[in-house]
Structure formats: structure tokens, C-alpha cells
Amino acid sequence: MGERQKAVVLLSGGLDSATVLAMALRDGYEVFALSFSYGQRHAWELAAAKQIAARAGGPGVAGVPGVKEHRIVAIDLRAFGGSALTGDWAVPKGRPLAEIAEGIPVTYVPARNTIFLSYALAWAEVLAAGDIFLGVNALDYSGYPDCRPEYIAAFEKLANLATKAAVLGERRIRIHTPLIALSKAEIIRAGLALGVDYGLTSSCYDPSPAGEACGACDACLLRRKGFREAGVADPTLYKAHANTVP
């Protein structure tokens, strides 16, 4: 058997990134997972990322090698703020799904995916990896401009202009976004088929101190919609007062 190709997978600890991690492992990549402590308003997603990386390739994913390495990099986007996730603004709750799909909400973190992809690109260069996986989605998402196909295509072009290996013709960088055109329900079904334990994941923008999801922020509403449309039970632990049907 030949040497496996290396890939950097951005792992937030949420539903989408956990699914993409499982896909990269399924496709035979030697996976290096990358997460960020970026000044976000809670640490539950990082705790989730640690568990997901530790369990990936384990029970339920028979014959699939696990994550080679998981790194958590500390950066401080609170230094700039500009988002409800890195500042003291209130997280929107209870928005209609039609409203979530329009405009750019205050939970958008300025340049976050550009910063994250730049770090992933740097690590990929050091690892001699040509592949970066990212769990962005342009169908059931909150209108973030850095989740669109045209943004991903532009960053890939930039990556191949800015890296030594690409300039020397040794290796090109490919940005993989296997979820970009899928609904949340389709993502969930794909992940379950790969053995993803969604009970380990954290999507909520405003969880309780105990890690319970609020059930009403945009991320929770989209997650609940996905499980409902997939026809499977949502394993998320929600706050006791959260509505049973968004």
C-alpha cells in the first residue's frame, strides 16, 4: 500500500466539520485536524472538537485510520470584535428560517474563514500536504459570505499563487468543501452512514454554562431543522425551556 496523502481538516467541533472529518478519513487521507481558540464566547465547541478528533476512526468506523494529529491554535479575534461571537452583542434568537437565509447576521465573524484557511495553508505547507478540508455550506447556512463557492475558488487560487510548492510546480493546494451544496438533512444522513456521533458535536452560539444548547439561535434552529428533515433523533442536549419544535 502506498503512502497516504496528507490533509489538513478544519475542525470546529460542530456538526458540519465532524462530517467533513469523517469524509476525509473515509477517502484515505492521513488527517491532521486543526481547531482554533479564537476568543469565541464559549469553549464548548473546542471540548467537542477534542472528543471528535479522539474518536474519529474509532468504533463505528471500522477499518478507517484515525486522526494523525489534532492541534488547537490560540488567536485573539476579540481584539477586533465586530461579531456577537467575539464581543458582547446579543446572539439573535428565534428568527424565522426564511429570515436566517437572508442577509448577514451579527454572528458573522469578520474574515474568520480567511484567517482559519491561512493557518491551515501554513500547516499544509509544513506537512507537505496538498489538501485542505473545510465544512462550509451554502444551502442551509446563516448567510456568511465566506461560505460561498466563489470564495472557496478564490482562496484556492490565492493558495496556489502564495505557496512555495505550488510556485515551484511541486504540489498544488486543493480546498475540499464536500458539504457546500448539501442540505443539513443530507449532511446528517451522510455523517450517520460514516459512523459520526453527533452527540459529541456542539453547534449552539449561546450554550448554557453546562453546555446545553439554547435551541433558539440560528445554529440551533438549522441543526434542529436538519435532524427533523433527516427523520432521525437529534442527540443534542437542549436547555429545558427550549421549544420542542423550532
Question: Can you describe what's shown?
Answer:
The protein has eight helices and five strands, in the order βαβαβααβααβαα. It has one domain: Rossmann fold (3-Layer(aba) Sandwich). β1, α1 and β2 form a beta-alpha-beta unit. With 246 residues, it is of the alpha/beta class.
Please write out the topology.
Elements: E1 6-10, H1 15-26, E2 30-37, H2 44-55, E3 69-74, H3 97-100, H4 112-127, E4 131-133, H5 149-162, H6 164-167, E5 174-176, H7 184-193, H8 218-230
Parallel strand pairs: 1-2, 1-4, 2-3, 4-5
Helix pairs in contact: 1-7, 7-8
The span between the termini is: 49 Å
**How many alpha or pi helices?**
8
* Regions with little confidence, pLDDT below 50 for 5+ residues: none
The CATH superfamily appears as HUPs
Task: Tell me the β content.
Answer: 5-15%
Output the strand order for the largest sheet. 3-2-1-4-5
Tertiary shape: globular
Q: In angstroms, what is the radius of gyration?
A: 17 Å
Q: What is the CATH topology? A: Rossmann fold
CATH class: Alpha Beta
Order of helices and strands: EHEHEHHEHHEHH
Give the name of the CATH architecture. 3-Layer(aba) Sandwich
Indicate the percent of residues in helices: 25-40%
Major sheet details: 5 strands, parallel
- Class derived from helix and strand content: alpha/beta
Q: How many extended strands?
A: 5
